[in-house]
Amino acid sequence: PGLRACACRLGRLRRVYGRLFRVVALRVGAAHPLATPRRALGRLSVTTGDVVSLDRGVLMGRGPTVPDGKDADRPHVVQLGADGVDISREHLEVRLEGWHVQVCDLGSTNGTEVTLPGAAPQRLHPHEPATIEPGTVVTLAEVASFTYEVVH
Fold first, then answer.
1. Nearest Cα to 96, choosing from 124, 134, 131?
2. Which helix (DSSP H) or strand (DSSP E) does residue 148 occupy?
């Protein structure tokens, strides 16, 4: 799946916010949004030491499984907490929706907390996606966590 973007006068692809580029504040002018292949929206730095690129979705849990399908649509699979039962078999999904990163607790037994930068931790409601921003820490069952980071 691709993204809608415009190229600024410097040739950089950016998310369109009205008629301005958010990051460099250069006018789009007569350019029209174009479809572009998905680029990584950042990475997840996991307490296990894993680093996962956000070039597609992510499935996390004690023993997550993904049905066979197109390789481009298959999420990254991150196994956490194999020795304990605190983390559910399929605990959390990270989704890429356009230029946004969302997390969704998959009905886990011991829950998921999201801590946005400068905010208090909030427990996710099962099966309700929440949009996160760079610097957010997501904690699964108070056992493992990851931080969403943007790499420039």
1. 131
2. strand 144-149
Q: Specify the pLDDT at position 40.
A: 84
CA-angle at 137, arms to 133 and 143, nearest 5°: 150
C-beta atoms surrounding 21 within 10 Å: 22
Q: Which residues of the chain have pLDDT under 70?
A: 1-38, 69-72, 82-84, 152
SS3 category, 149? strand
Question: What global pTM score does this model have?
Answer: 0.76
Q: Which residues contact 82 (CB under 8 A, 6 or more apart)?
A: 62, 63
Helix/strand/coil for 30? coil
What are the tokens at 32?
Answer: 């029209």
Residue type, 55: D
Which residue is it, tokens 């004690």? 62
DSSP-derived 3-state class of residue 70 = coil
